[in-house]
């Protein structure tokens, strides 16, 4: 039997259970189980199927044993901001409403009439996004005052899954920062913000730092699996885990998936006027540092177009179509709120182009080029902003995550920024999750060792502009 650590990495469109172990100085990955995820309408709101996700997680655990692994630890990461509330008996009293649900429409503006925008940013360091937990909690309270009265515990998705595994309640730090309710400097829940919004502070537990053991599988699960598996906290926010797997500290990173998260790591929060204006965020990092980054709409746009076109084209086919199209220049502002949760992504893109007097994309190739070029434009702008705010010039950009397979965008980004563009690892989130588990068990002793390990274990590709001809070397 091979001992392993298990990473449970659940994104907005799919989840994975991945076994990881060290062999000959390299980190080996084995995907044990993969499943779909998505939102569905329930009680008038877009929700996640949290019970279904938990079942898939347990299936993954069982499969690992069937594949002859002995899991010693398990760690969970998912997307941020979403939560459930439990009553005093620790029973769930809310659905797992998804952040793209329209319950938060207009709520940020309402809150910014109560709280001063600048103060809120200075205290939390978190970027203004209409779906942050703070706005969701406020919307929930307005719609369900009687349930809010009953609520005793606030858990984010990984916290809740950890609770189901172990029976232990916790609020993990990296994910908690995405609520916009934590003080960036003290790393504790911000009393004055909670009080101003009448959100009871008793709902929250003192944030727990990643890289520590939370507990063990509940006895019935232990019996089922046959092993005493330790439940460990990685960066439970998927982006926090992904950033751990950035191969090179000197690059700007882009974690490319449903969202594109572009930024750098920093020792302390940057909450300047400029950072607020550029809407950058200071989320908590696994190494207790800061992920100074910006959320950019990301592959969600092409995922939605793909779905609308009845999955006739794969992602790679969209990339191929983009290469074949000679020129199509229309650009949309990918961070326009209309693209967050539209009825039709295609229609929203087309109306944006129409309103801005640009050619309207109709064919799948035109839509793909419009989305890819618009994303690249927005990355290019963010790179400029990062350099301006940190006062540093970066020679390279490293794209991690599944979206790094988009060669068209990688080449366009190299061309637009003149920087070397590195891509990989594609499984960054699971890798970062596993590394945090290995730090906890002592299998990896330092951040430096983990960086060496990543570079040794995974293929990193390089796109570079060569001379005048804009040729790329791979
Ligand atoms: C990426 C992500 C991102 C959040 C968003 C809700 O999966 O966690 O960091 O802002 O989802």
Automatic annotation (TrEMBL):
Single GO term (MF): rhamnulokinase activity
GO biological process: rhamnose catabolic process
UniProt keyword annotations, A-Z: ATP-binding, Kinase, Nucleotide-binding, Rhamnose metabolism, Transferase
InterPro entries: ATPase_NBD (IPR043129), Carb_kinase_FGGY (IPR000577), FGGY_C (IPR018485), FGGY_Carb_Kinase (IPR050406), FGGY_N (IPR018484), Rhamnulokinase (IPR013449)
Residue ranges occupied by any Carbohydrate kinase FGGY C-terminal domain in the UniProt entry: 253-439
EC number: 2.7.1.5
Domain annotation Carbohydrate kinase FGGY N-terminal: ranges: 6-244
Top-level enzyme category: transferase
Family: Belongs to the FGGY kinase family.
Protein's UniProt name: Rhamnulokinase
Organism: Gracilibacillus dipsosauri
Gene that this polypeptide is encoded by: rhaB
């Amino acid at each position: 039997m091979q001992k392993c650590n298990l990473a449970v990495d659940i994104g907005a469109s799919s989840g994975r259970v991945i076994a990881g172990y060290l062999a000959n100085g390299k980190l080996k990955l084995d995907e044990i189980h993969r499943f779909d995820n998505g939102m569905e309408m329930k009680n008038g709101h877009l929700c996640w199927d949290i019970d279904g996700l938990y079942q898939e997680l347990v299936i993954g655990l069982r499969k690992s044993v069937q594949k002859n692994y002995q899991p010693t630890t398990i760690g969970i990461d998912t997307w941020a901001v979403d939560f459930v509330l439990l009553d005093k008996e620790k029973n769930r009293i809310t659905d797992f409403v998804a952040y793209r649900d329209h319950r938060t429409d207009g709520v940020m503006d309402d809150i910014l009439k109560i709280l001063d925008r600048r103060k809120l940013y200075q205290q939390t360091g978190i970027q203004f996004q209409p779906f942050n937990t703070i706005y969701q909690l406020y919307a929930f309270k307005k719609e369900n005052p009687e349930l809010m009265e009953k609520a005793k515990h606030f858990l984010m998705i990984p916290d809740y899954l950890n609770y189901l595994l172990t029976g232990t309640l916790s609020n993990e730090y990296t994910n908690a920062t995405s609520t916009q309710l934590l003080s960036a400097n003290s790393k504790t829940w911000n009393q004055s913000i909670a009080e101003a919004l009448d959100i009871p502070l008793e709902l929250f537990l003192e944030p727990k730092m990643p890289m520590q053991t939370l507990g063990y599988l509940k006895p019935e699960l232990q019996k089922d699996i046959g092993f005493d598996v330790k439940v460990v906290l990685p960066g439970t926010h998927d982006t926090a885990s992904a950033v751990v797997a950035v191969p090179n500290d000197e690059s700007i990173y882009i974690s490319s998936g449903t969202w594109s998260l572009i930024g750098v790591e920093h020792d302390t929060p940057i909450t300047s006027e400029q950072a607020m204006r550029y809407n950058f965020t200071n989320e908590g990092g696994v190494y207790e540092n800061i992920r100074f980054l910006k959320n950019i709409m990301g592959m969600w746009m092409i995922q939605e177009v793909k779905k609308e076109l009845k999955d006739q084209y794969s992602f790679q086919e969209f990339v191929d179509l983009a290469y074949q199209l000679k020129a199509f220049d229309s650009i949309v502002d990918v961070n326009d709120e209309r693209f967050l949760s539209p009825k039709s992504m295609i229609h929203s893109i087309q109306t944006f182009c129409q309103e801005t007097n640009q050619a309207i994309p109709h064919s799948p190739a035109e839509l793909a080029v419009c989305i890819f070029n618009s994303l690249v434009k927005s990355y290019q702008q963010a790179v400029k902003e990062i350099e301006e705010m940190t006062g540093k010039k970066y020679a390279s950009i490293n794209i991690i995550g599944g979206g790094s397979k988009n060669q068209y965008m990688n080449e366009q980004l190299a061309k637009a920024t003149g920087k070397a563009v590195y891509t990989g690892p594609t499984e960054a989130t699971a890798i970062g999750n596993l590394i945090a588990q290995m730090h906890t068990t002592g299998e990896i002793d330092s951040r430096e060792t983990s960086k060496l390990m990543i570079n040794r274990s995974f293929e990193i590709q390089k796109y570079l502009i060569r001379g005048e001809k804009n040729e790329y070397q791979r």
